[in-house]
Amino acid sequence: MGKKLIGLLFLLCGIAVFAGAIAAEIAWLVFCFGTVIIGILLLFLAPAILFFPVNIGFVTGMAIWGAGIALISEEDSDRTDLESNRRFNSLEPGEVDLSVAFFVQQQMNELMSRKERVVIDTVVVAYLTAVVNIITKKNVSLSELKPMCHGLFHKSPFEVDTGFREALDNNGEYRASVRKLMPIVRDEVASGQGAFLAQYVIRHNHTDQTV
Fold this sequence. Notes:
10 helices
């Protein structure tokens, strides 16, 4: 809140400088054109001198205005980052889109029927990112996706946490996996049946191979 108040003060100061520059320019023009010949000569030979007050005033005003906007935006950004960190560090389950839950649960049912151990690593997080992005038509961040995954895998909160921290630490690998999996997930969603997650977990558990 402090940065926002200071930012607002900067904005008010910027407006005051703009108003002062206009007033000073009017007074300067009246002075210069008090002698018409001098005013005309300045207009054609040295317009920079004629418009000196407003030029200086607007440059100064814009600098103050920009600083105010930056302070306000910085506080909003700080608040957003803090909220994102809070969500990322939380183990609490979040709201899950029903279509996403149904799509993933089909594969989870297969894994449970096989008594497979749940695996949540960078590739699985990337797959879930692609699933959520395609089904909801929204690009979600890791901090937005993590509560959803806690909802999907509510019996494995620490595995979810470990997988997401791995994805965060290996961000390049995670993003590359998302790009690689997008067309696969798009085809799965179009067919109404997912398969990659179950196949990957089974392969990981039995052969320790990765994508």
